[in-house]
Specification:
By secondary structure, the protein is of the alpha/beta class. The longest helix is centred in the C-terminal third of the chain and has 27 residues. The N terminus is likely disordered. α2 packs parallel to α5 and α6 runs antiparallel to α7. It contains ten helices and nine strands.
Length: about 350
């Protein structure tokens, strides 16, 4: 009988602790890796690379046995990267104008990593009346097809990998604004009852290199241009009766009334309700880009969680702490974004 009573008490406690959450989705603007001076309005994309013609860069590995594949080169690789970069920069609308220089070509006698000469850069600037030059100065690529055998089946992967070396030049500065080494890879997967069937859906090496070059140009945009990124956040909907009323206001897109109700819960509710209400307010403030106040409410939430009962809310306590740290990082990101969008100074 005692065991039954204890079990019932445990079940009641568990159900009492369950919460009803709702996921809210919104976009946040992430800063680029590099801060381009806002006075730079136009940029010229330049292929300043030499063709990559190394041997034995494509290999197959079948149960740890390495076999070189055909020596396949894609001499239009860098131009393909540049055109992919051009299309993606155009779609972001960060620069007023983006150009591709099709006249300049690196001399075969130049070193692989040699930058564009000052004379040639001046000619490009004059030709386009542009503020900056972004050049791909060198690149490498390779392929690794790996086949692993299992009872009655084979599992295969095709990895295309490479390195690209970039320089961004400002017309009015002698040294590049930045130099970047981009290291990237893409994968294909397959399976089958024979080696041949496990790899039959892989692209040819040449087609894979074309796909990879598009990916490189598309991916590099995030290094120099801020991007929107979707996030998901949990909102608490149960506990104090006002949580339900706040949820109704949210469904009507009235965030201010919802925040008022959560504020009342924070002032008058139990510690766990106070913690969850403060968390909700922080989430909505982040959505509204009020990161400074979101941080304050996130800390209020963490503080209230510390007063809540023991291990029952340990997961929520840890999540609250992580969210406050995340918002601290977001504050630094916003300061960087202000510089990149022309609203502040370094």
């Amino acid at each position: 009988m005692i065991r039954i009573v204890i079990a019932l008490a445990f079940i009641i406690t568990m159900f009492a602790c369950q919460t009803s959450n709702s996921i809210i989705e919104y976009d946040v603007l992430r800063p680029a890796k590099y801060s381009i001076p806002p006075e730079i309005k136009s940029v010229v994309l330049v292929n300043n690379s030499l063709p990559y013609l190394e041997k034995n860069i494509h290999v197959a590995v079948v149960d740890d046995f390495i076999q070189p594949l055909d020596s396949v080169w894609y001499e239009g690789y860098a131009d393909s990267v540049i055109h992919s970069l051009y299309r993606n920069l155009q779609s972001r609308n960060f620069f007023d104008t983006v150009y591709i220089d099709t006249l300049y070509r690196k001399k075969a006698t130049s070193g692989m990593l040699n930058k564009i000469s000052d004379w040639d850069m001046q000619g490009i600037y004059n030709r386009f009346d542009a503020d900056a030059i972004l050049s791909i100065d060198a690149y490498t690529y390779g392929t690794k097809v790996k086949v692993e055998s299992y009872p009655e089946s084979y599992y295969s992967t095709m990895a295309m990998y490479g390195i690209s070396y970039w320089r961004f030049h400002d017309r009015f500065q002698q040294d590049p604004i930045f130099e970047d080494v981009q290291n990237d890879s893409i994968y294909w997967h397959g399976s089958g009852d024979m080696v041949e069937t496990s790899v039959m859906r892989f692209p040819s090496i040449l087609e894979g290199l074309k796909d990879f070059s598009y990916y490189i140009g598309e991916n590099f945009v995030d290094e120099i241009v801020p991007k929107w990124e979707g996030v998901e956040r949990d909102l608490f909907l149960t506990g104090h009766p006002y949580f339900i009323s706040a949820a109704e206001w949210l469904s009507k897109n009235n965030n201010d009334e919802a925040k008022k109700l959560w504020g009342y819960i924070f002032e008058h509710g139990k510690p766990i309700d106070k913690a969850r209400a403060a968390h909700n307010i922080a989430i909505i403030l982040e959505k509204e880009d009020d990161i400074y106040n979101a941080m304050k409410w996130a800390y209020n939430s963490y503080d209230a969680y510390k007063l809540s009962s023991g291990a029952l809310y340990k997961t929520e306590l840890n999540d609250s702490k992580r969210y406050y740290i995340y918002l601290s990082q977001r504050k630094q990101e916003l300061e960087k974004l202000q510089i990149q969008m022309g609203g502040g100074n370094e």
